[in-house]
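Fold sample X.
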Amino acid sequence: MSQQQLSYRKRIDRVVNYIYDHLDEPIDLQLLADVACMSPYHWHRVYRAIQGETIAATVKRLRLHRAAGQLAHSKISIEEIAERSGYSSLAAFSRAFTQIYGQPPAQFRRAGAHVKLQEAIAQGEGHLYPVEIKTIEAQTLIGLPHQGDYMDIGRVFEPVFGWLGQAGLLPQMRHAMAIYYHDPDSVPEPDLQSFAGAVMEGDVEMPEHFQTRVVKGGRYAVLRYRGAYAEMADAYRWLFGTWLTTNGYELGDAPCVEAYRNNPREVSPADLLTDIYLPLAEV
């Protein structure tokens, strides 16, 4: 990637970070042009060309992703969630949410996958999801670290995928992965550490601000999760609290890892596929 391309990439990354930090506020295109340090006449065309979607699509996707998490894991009223998501009426929010998540917000809160998982945890149901025991080789991730709410790890995945796409490296990507170093139920949200990256085929020259991490090789319990990222916290609780204790495995000395098998821009949240890797002690 040339220095000129890298410059545009960094400016678009600033815009994405600004959006994440201001999801509760109206999006001002003139202000975003200033954030990008580009002409207001042309910057949005650059954004769409590099990101593959409009600003409006990005904002809608991120707001509804956050809304799904709030519906699943908070007691914030649906009316307030709708207002925070930038919708002037509950009806408009419900239509937009249903279009993406396949069910109205109230039904999602009352009967989404997270509810099924919570009931399975309470009942000690140990076979809710198929879990395979796999031995994997060590894998190197190229990407960026993230600190804070795991639901916001997308803010570093955006520049990772943006760089891969702009450099023409997406055909060399095996899959996207993330390493999660802490338990979000026991570590304060601002202190949570994670890493978002991609496993690549062959050698790749990466930007100087990118980093690498190694996913430890060894034995893992792998849960294939289908559904919205916002509901996965309960899948972890089931995996640790029910499956692990039911099956008697010992945990290994490595963090949990997720491998993402499809793209949230290309499939609905209900069809997202994520492999959750739980490290196990060697026998």
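Fold sample Y, listed below.
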Amino acid sequence: MEKVDLVKAVTELEEDLVISAVNEQLAAGISAVEILKQLQEGMEGVGKLYEAGDYYLSELIMSAEVFSNAAALLGSALAADGNNKTTGTVILGTVKDDIHDIGKNIVSTILSCNGFKVVDIGVDAPIETFVEAIKDNKPDVIGMFCLLTTAFDVMKETVAAVKATGTSATVLVGGGPVDLNVAEWCGADGYCKNAYDAVEMSKKASNIN
């Protein structure tokens, strides 16, 4: 039987092929971390098609579901790879006035698969919700998302309020229109282009090699 190209299957939203390919690679002894990278690469392909206008919101939603279902198969395998202990705590939320959650959910899934405790405070999250979550969870990382440029101002206000709590947590921002310039303007400690960046930066913030 011909080997399935996992990256291509994710990009083309072929869920049955994705699930079978993940199971085949696990059975062949390929590390869960390597499989996760392929899933993420496929999602980046989806993002490029969306930006080009070839995919629409419905495809984005479907891709997130395909990714989450596939990543769920990796949970125990990632634990076997040595990620079975919690490596840090991350608070994730989409800032107030923005209700987009696809990117946030993907990042949440990947962080969880890498052993992080994720506290997801949802979408359209007021500044007070971020502040309360910090008090309750003492996180290593705080991740903020937005997909609307109109939410940049509230993201900046949220970053300022979070830092005013005196937390030592690293504040990361991301989302479709967000870039390094926006991150610096908001006063964030870092910008995550994708979920892989979020994992690497969260590991660094939590002193994980």
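Sample Y note: The first strand starts at residue 88 and ends at 94.
Also: The radius of gyration is 17 Å.
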